[in-house]
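Here is one chain, start to finish.
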Amino acid sequence: MPGQLAVVLGTRPEIVKLAPVIRALSSPPLMIHTGQHYDAEMAGVFFRAFGLEEPAHRLEIGGMSRGQQIGAAVSKLDEMLAELQPAAVIAQGDTNSTMATAVAANARSIPMVHVEAGLRSHDRNMPEEHNRVVADHLSDLCLAPTETALANLTAERIPEERIVVTGNTVVDAVLHLLPDRGARRSFLEHHGVEPSRFVLSTFHRPENVDDPERLQTIVDELGGLELEVLLPVHPRTREVAAANDIDLQSGGVRLLNPVDYVEFLALLSECALVVGDSGGLQEEVSVLKKPMVVVRNSTERPEVLGTFCSLVDVGPEISGSAGRWLAGEPHTAAELIDIPSPYGEGDAGQRSVEAIERFLETIY
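Its structure:
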């Protein structure tokens, strides 16, 4: 087989979800970091957490508009792939980096593997939807996390021979990095909260935080919940709030500086409820058996709706849905424990690598 495999990533969630694949590979891949999340120290923390070497190749495309970022990434990846000549390129998810990787690999006729393929919100206002659709249709191997994702791909006439259902590598990552009970309690003591007596919240999506009126409504709703709310503040959210005189620390909301992934998992595993707009969180709560109020116009993860998650718009339904969850509706905490995650049992990294190896045998 000519060349090594190459793995391209550019954001912290990509590191989290690709780490199980990288760890399962029989030999280290060529690692390319696009720099889409350009805080190098934070990215380094994630690589060290998974015991991975930091990427030897970096593109530094952070701090650009979406169009500039995609264009710069395609151009730089084209040059790098021409030089490295990998046997195949692996990318994950729905970021600008992923879309750019698919375009660059296709242009160089290098096989493309898309991890977490087939997610669909059917919402064209979501930039990530365009990224994931392009990546799927340009990929030679689509690793779908669920049967729902498989159905989405086949509905778009992507041949089934290009698709393998693997589960979602987020399960592997959460189980690998979740602190033990003692460490989790230490984190709770540090933040002055008790198990199942606080709400964990995070907001960063443009549809929510770039609109001052929507952001103010979210803050008001969080401030009215019956339990204290811990809110690690995304820099984007803090900037919009400051520019529009929005007090994020409303009612029972307590602001936290951004926390690393291990600490966040500790808080997530011990909270009573999650309220937020993160896509990855919708998967993580299914692993840790926590309820979540998803505050978004749409979601590409319907597998968790009605079990671990409820989808609501900005407004009074945030506190309404939160109140129902805290009262044990539609499921109590004990009932959630018995509901299996739709994303697998923690072997998606190994299953992904096995699928990649079978695919490479067919082309080399």
